[in-house]
Amino acid sequence: MVQVNIQDLFDNSRFPRGISLLPVLLYFPVGLVLAVLRIFIGLHVFLLSCILPKASLIRSVVLRIMCSILGICVTQKNQENRDLAARVIVTNFISTLDHLAVDLAIPCMMPSVWDLPIALNWMLGYTPMGVKEGRDVLIQNAKRHCQDSSFPILAHPEGASTNGKVGLLKFSVWPFSLDQPVQPVLVRLFRPRFLHVAPSVLGGRWWLDVLWFLFMPYTHFQLRILPKVMQYDKESTEDFTKRVQQLMAHELGIAATNHTSADKVEYAKRTLVRQQAHVSSPQTSRKELYPTSHGPASPTATPQPVVETRLNTMARQVKEVLPHVPLDVIRVNLGTTKDVDLTITNLLEGRVKFTLETPGSRLPAASSVSPQASPSPNSTAAKTFSKSPKDRTLSLQERKKALIENARTKYKEKHGLST
Fold first, then answer.
1. What's the pTM?
2. Coil vs helix vs strand at 270
């Protein structure tokens, strides 16, 4: 597997920067009117998809025409590779409407992850297969569908969308556990060159993606059908899955990565925390530099207390218990845990690595320290500076252990815990 940074797999912004944004702004009024008109046309498309038989030629032709009006065009390449014996179709995942594009070209059914009415499931091309009940139930229902239904199963084994430019997420094994040959289909998406609008973004909503599809002049889905792939004798399901992933990545000219859909969720959470911290940080700095007071100013008026963020308040609480832990380390861990007690536990148990802060390197913000203050009786400072590196290392370990014990004792006393 090729090593690819996870941030390269997704678009964080839907719009370009700089001069490339100008065409989008100029087109915006036209796109807005177009989107409103297409919303009403889309209602008729859903109605037709529900009324007409799924396998009929009339439905395929009518829906293609109606979707073209909606700005969704679908073309196929290498149709001679389509094998009706392949009961499972797997594709890469680059947008919310990938399954619609594939369904227009190859009528199929996709396992539903939502609890929708039967009619709505049918219109959207979904079928309930017990996804929420676990993988075993899903595989069992999918095998039954392959035996009883004439429509193949469509699966996005990546489990989450990417920008399709750098790599594929690691495939889930369930579509390859059905004892069926697999038909890979490569999905590419093209839009007007002068309008650089990403089809999906990190943390975006599916309905927003659909609205931007209606906003664009057109979106061209190009489907390239690869020959069916069968599992070798004595080949494990994991190896079969990896082989198909590498085949599709090679044909797309991108990398097959080990990043999973769960990694995308964690990366999205970290990105959201950083964005919130970036937004709140300038506001906090302005409040600290320029505290505001209400009412007329007077020589005897007392300044209003500075409004601080909840994160800074929690960081000070941790700092009171663990004064030798750098404040930056505390804030970073609090951004993940959002809990004072859990952060203290992480620091005490060594789950967070940090360099001990010397007593004089940072002064508490809420109190003044007298230059003649006597040293703390629990001070862990070294009595002498040893010339031997080995002795200095041992001394550091002893002082660190003593510091942790002092902090644990102080924490228990503060919260009234039994020793």
1. 0.65
2. helix
